[in-house]
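Researcher: I'm comparing several assemblies side by side, and this is the next one on my list. It has 412 residues spread over four chains. Same procedure as the others: predict the full complex and return the structure.
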Amino acid sequence: MTGLRERKKAETRAALGWAAIHLTAERGYDNVRVEDIAEAAGVSPRTFNNYFSSKAEAIASRHLDRSLRTAAALRERPADEPLWVALAQAALDQFTRGPEVEAMPSPDHARWVAGVRTMLAEPALQGERLRATALAEAELAAAVAERTGTDLATDMYPRLVAAAASAAVVVAMQHYLDSADPPAPIERLITDAFTQVAAGLPAPPR
Amino acid sequence: MTGLRERKKAETRAALGWAAIHLTAERGYDNVRVEDIAEAAGVSPRTFNNYFSSKAEAIASRHLDRSLRTAAALRERPADEPLWVALAQAALDQFTRGPEVEAMPSPDHARWVAGVRTMLAEPALQGERLRATALAEAELAAAVAERTGTDLATDMYPRLVAAAASAAVVVAMQHYLDSADPPAPIERLITDAFTQVAAGLPAPPR
DNA sequence: GACCTTCTTGCGTGACACGCATATTTGCGC
DNA sequence: GCGCAAATATGCGTGTCACGCAAGAAGGTC
């Protein structure tokens, strides 16, 4: 039941998050006032804080949404698929670039990437992104518990798995961003990271 | 070369961090003003922001210091010790309770624990703590790279190991805090978590 | 003991998060 | 259609907060 109410709410939220990211990537974190974001989203400044409790939270909101989808994706993998294969696939699903990214005009693409980089360097943002990651991790742990028939309350197992999977994605992303061009394809990095983790990260031969 | 200057600086920093934690655990996060913390540490409000760029950062500072010590501890483990044993030991080292904790009067011990719990629930704090964890993780990754002869720039391995080890500690801590009394001993939880991670977190038999 | 560096402090400013009261919009039963 | 109750948007006021700047105090060096 997707009432008009819910849809509008979701739209406003998305608009605010999107505007926050764009403005920040363009001008830098503290050259963007909440007022600007609200205006760009066509909403009053006061309303901004009905959706997000801080500027940082707004900017991290898309990261949160994306991260949360991994748990949902895991739940939809076939039940007989081996756990770590399912996890890797669920993670990979989140990295197929959507149409809104593909459609982005590439003239200022370099500027955009640079903007995102400095944005991610902002301390206030890092905390908020990590918080989002942690929240998604909890959700993922619940999904893992269901799938493996373990108990969140008594077993560390599901949380460990969720944390390890999350770490694999984060590290892969980090390598992707750090690597000079041409960057290694993100899919390969993620797959590789999951393989290593599932193997217990044995010390490499010297 | 421990000049008076450095010592005083370290003392002020510690006093501020300590005061921030105590006051917050007692009164709750937003019943503590920066002014109060500064006063408790015997320093002007303005000086507070010379040491920390936010109230949250001050509260998380001890967590940061502690987390950073894990990397240092790893560097001091014998070089011929297997990696995962060394990691587990380095982590365990950080959980031997110091004298200042042991000396704490236990009458209001329950109040203290409750205070800490609500403190950790504060969103603004969570982000800052996670940021500290991430920073320590980077340090740990460097130490792992040294020890294993891998390259931070080209191999995901050291970062994956650091992230997995960090996750093991975090999950163990989480279980420790969530578990009803009598809590399982933290040492066992940590050891257990590391064992599982090093085994590749295989799916449990149903 | 003079000099330079580093740290502390007070003041002022712009921004922010949020409580509260009011106006507006939406959904729903009739 | 119609009107009412709930949800949402907005405007205003307030208490903090982070930090730039400049002057003063203390530490370290020769």
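Model: For your comparison table: Chain A touches chain B through 45 residues (CB under 8 Å).
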